[in-house]
Amino acid sequence: MNLRHSHVWLSSGPVVEHVLNSPAQHQIHHSDAPRHLNKNFAINLSLWDWMFGTIYVIRPTPQCIRFGAGERDDDRHAVCGDGTQGKISAIDCARNASDTLLKDDAGSVRQGKPGELPLFIPGGEIARRSKIVQASPRSTLSLCLHERLPRTAMSHTTLPSRAFLKGAIDIMPLSLAVLPWGLLAGSLAIDAGLSPLHGQGLSAIVFAGAAQLVAIGMLKGGAGFFSIMITTLLLTSQHLLYGMTMRPVISELPGRWRAALGFLLTDEFFALTSGHDRETFNRWYALGVGLTFYIAWNLFTLAGVLVGSSIPGLEHLGLDFSIAATFVALIAPVVKNVPTVVCVAVSLFCSVLFSYWQVGSALVLSGLAGMFAGFICQKYSGVRA
C-alpha cells in the first residue's frame, strides 16, 4: 500500500514520538480535541485514497505512545513507551470487530463482539477472513495498515460523498455507451408523433431503453395500450430477477431508499452493484451509479428530441447497434464458468433460431431458455454461476 503523502492526526492525549522508519513522509498534528476523542487517530492516505479508499481509525490505549516500523515495509507496529507487554486496543481496519477472530499463543480463539475493538496479543495471530497477520513477538500489536477494502468495493464506513462520486465515475463508461441509444429514442419519439414534452417524459418516467424503443415503434404502428403494456412488461421482466438478487443487501434499507434504488435499477446498475454483499454494499455508491446513469440517459434523449428532427433518417444509421454492444460489454466480464457459458450460448442459439422461425417474443423466450439451461448445468455441475 502506498503511504506516501499520508497524514496522521493525533487528538489531545499523550505525547507521541513519531519513529516510522519508512520512505513515506508522515506528518503528525496535535490538537486540543474534546476529552472523549483523546484516544482517536485518523489516517488519511493520498488524495486518491481519500476519495476512493478507506479511512482507517486507530484507537490505542493512552499507555501506547510510540509507533514504529516492523521488519517489513507493510508491517507497522506500535510499542508501549514503558516496554510492558499486554493487551491493548488497536485498529479496526474499517471493519466490524465481529468479523475479526483473535488467536493467542495458547491457541485459544474468540470472536470479537459487535462494536468492540479487537484486542491484539503479542506474538499471536490475527485472522481477518482468510488473511493471517503475524504480530512480531517484540512488539505489542500489529496495526495491519496494509489491509483495506479493495477500491472496487464500498463499505458502510465509506463517506457518502466519496462513495457517491466513485459510483458516478464507475458508471460513466456505460453512460457514454448509450449515447446513440438515447439519441435514437428521442428522435423516434418525435417521429412517432409525440410532443417534445411527451418524448422526454417517456425517458424520465419509464427509464427503460429497449422497452422505450419497442413501445415507440408499436405506438407508431397503431398498437393498443394494453398490447404495449404487456410487451413492455415482458421486455423488462429481468428486473424482477435483478430485484430478487439484490433483496438481501437492500432489504434493511429504509423504504425511501428501496423505492429510489428500485426505480434506478437497470441492466447497467445491476452489473456494477450485484457483486456487492451486505458488507461491501453502499447505498450512496449505488445512488451515484443509478442517478448518474439516469441523468445521462435523459440528457441523451433530450438531445435526440432537439436534434433528431433535423437529421433525416436517423433510425437508419445503425444507432440501435449500441443496444447490442452495451449488453455485450455487460455480459462479457461475468462469463467465467461453465453454467454462465451455457446460459449465454443457449440464449444466443435460441434467439437466432426463433428469429429465423419468426416466433413471437423470440428474445424473451430465448432468454428464458438460456436461464433454464444455465440452472440445470449449475445444479448438476455444482458450480455456482
Write up this protein.
- The protein has three domains: 7-142, no CATH class; 160-320, no CATH class; 335-385.
- 27% of the residues are buried.
- Strand 12 (125-128) and strand 13 (131-134) form a beta hairpin.
- It has 385 residues and is α+β, with helices and mostly antiparallel strands.
- The protein is built from 13 helices and 14 strands.
- It has a four-stranded mixed beta sheet with strand order 3-1-4-5. Strands 2-6-7-14 form a four-stranded mixed beta sheet, with no helix packed on it.
- It has helices at residues 47-52, 160-177, 179-191, 196-205, 209-220, 225-235, 238-250, 255-263, 267-273, 283-307, 321-331, 338-356, 362-381; strands at 7-10, 17-19, 28-30, 41-44, 56-58, 66-69, 76-79, 88-89, 100-103, 109-111, 119-120, 125-128, 131-134, 141-142.
Count of DSSP E strands? 14
Q: What structural class is derived from the secondary structure elements?
A: alpha+beta
- Total domain count: 3
Strand order of the largest sheet: 3-1-4-5
Alpha-carbon distance between the two ends: 32 Å
The low-confidence parts are 1-105, 109-153
**How much is the average pLDDT?**
65
Summed up, the helix count is 13
Residue share in β-strands: 5-15%
Overall form = globular
Radius of gyration from CA coordinates: 27 Å
How is the biggest beta sheet arranged? Answer: 4 strands, mixed
Q: How do the helices and strands follow one another from N- to C-terminus?
A: EEEEHEEEEEEEEEEHHHHHHHHHHHH
Give the helix proportion (percent range): 40-55%
